[in-house]
Amino acid sequence: MGYMAYKRALDILNIKDQPQSDTAKVIKKDITFDSGEFYEKMEVIRKKTEGRLRLEYPNSKIEVTIPSKERDLATQKEYEKSGASATTISLHNFGAAADFKIVIDGENQDVKGPNWKEELLPFRILGSEARNLGMFWGWGGDAGHVADTRFVHQFLRKYPEQIDQDFLKDWYTFQSDTTQAGYKNVLSVLDSAYKQEHDRVWLGDDVTIDPLLEDWPAGSNKKVFGYIK
Ligand SMILES: [Zn+2]
């Protein structure tokens, strides 16, 4: 991270620059995101989920894979256009999200299919393993998605050095005049980080905080399908 990015990171955290002190070093270390480490964690979650599913479905062939990891902005835009994603900026663009696929006896557990509530159980097991490692999981319409945080603006507050990424600056330049109201939080973080002001026309609705799916901790013995706030 360059010095200016580091200064901006400190600004966001409202911390005075103290380059001589140990405090600054600790802060610098704490705010660094490592995508490689993130996907190592995803591999741990994948293996643990497979193990749990083998116990839950003892006579079945279980395959848990991660077909979608990091994505560039152009691919994200295609996902958004096709309806596969609701946003043009995603934790996938930071290498901080993974989409899991679960196949049982050759059948893809498509949580958007007609039997999605029954098929949700394997994903609730995934969710429990993801949450055990402190990861975000639980979007009703996207039960295979695991990420470092729920929203991009939370990720940027957690790892302020990420605001210096070129692709993020590219994305930002397209949000100057007219954009989606759902991006208000992330744009507010970026406006203050880049020290810019924009008078934007907002389209659509603000982000709604939907209830999250309930996970399925190890040792659960009732097949209950529900949501938690
Ligand atoms: Zn995803």
Termini separation (Å)? 37 Å
Q: Note poorly predicted spans.
A: 14-28, 223-229
Average of per-residue pLDDT values? 85
Major sheet description: 5 strands, antiparallel
Approximately what portion of the residues adopt beta-strand conformation? 5-15%
What small molecules accompany the polymer chains?
Answer: zinc ion
CATH topology of the domain at 35-151: Muramoyl-pentapeptide Carboxypeptidase, domain 2
Text of the CATH class of the domain at 35-151: Alpha Beta
Q: Kindly state the percentage of residues in helix.
A: 40-55%
**Count of alpha/pi helices:** 8
What is the string of SSEs from the N terminus onward? HHHEHEEHEEHHEHEEE
- What general outline do the C-alpha atoms trace? elongated
From the alpha carbons, calculate the radius of gyration and give it in angstroms: 20 Å
Give me the CATH architecture of the domain at 35-151, please: 2-Layer Sandwich
| Number of β-strand runs | 9
Q: Provide the structure class.
A: alpha+beta
Keyword list:
single chain, binds zinc ion, 14% strand, five-stranded antiparallel sheet, 229 residues, 8 helices, two-stranded parallel sheet, 41% helix, disordered C terminus, alpha+beta, Muramoyl-pentapeptide Carboxypeptidase, domain 2
